[in-house]
Sequence to fold (226 residues):
Amino acid sequence: KQEVTQIPAALSVPEGENLVLNCSFTDSAIYNLQWFRQDPGKGLTSLLLIQSSQREQTSGRLNASLDKSSGRSTLYIAASQPGDSATYLCAVGSASKIIFGSGTRLSIRP
Amino acid sequence: DVKVTQSSRYLVKRTGEKVFLECVQDMDHENMFWYRQDPGLGLRLIYFSYDVKMKEKGDIPEGYSVSREKKERFSLILESASTNQTSMYLCASSLFGQKLNTDTQYFGPGTRLTVL
Fold:
């Protein structure tokens, strides 16, 4: 049974720092991994999708990596800004379902 | 841009009422999904549909049903609402991927349902 874990549950960093969010999964037989952002009381916004054949994807200040063999993905945020404050969730797509992590709540201090 | 809309942002219903949550996407996506999100439990899949009139149960289908009569619209139905169905309900869609989701999921803004 696939399990997706995001540690830490919450993170606070000062503005301007580079940071890494972690996502780990137990079953490496995945189709893809997706990172989302969720603002309080809102829906999810897709940030990056990495297919199982890919190692990383980049969009602006965001870079996501995928290492299937170790069951890990990271989301790197460069030069963090207060507007980056949100909850970040990863979701693993496999043969029969999509499993979401519980998220990391990120706070960027001005 | 893909747009997924949900009929209500907030909804308050009474126990035993029949509740309809509507979701519409405007990008001709084949897959549509209903999730609920609860603190400490994360997102859980209720039902998904990969084609008109096709549906499959997710992880927590009990107490819910769905309807997909048109490609762009996916409805979640609570036949007899109960207090434990108080939650945030999120609809999503994705382009295609056999029966499964292998593509980016686009989410609606969510409906916060309270059952009294």
Chain A has a mean pLDDT of 94.
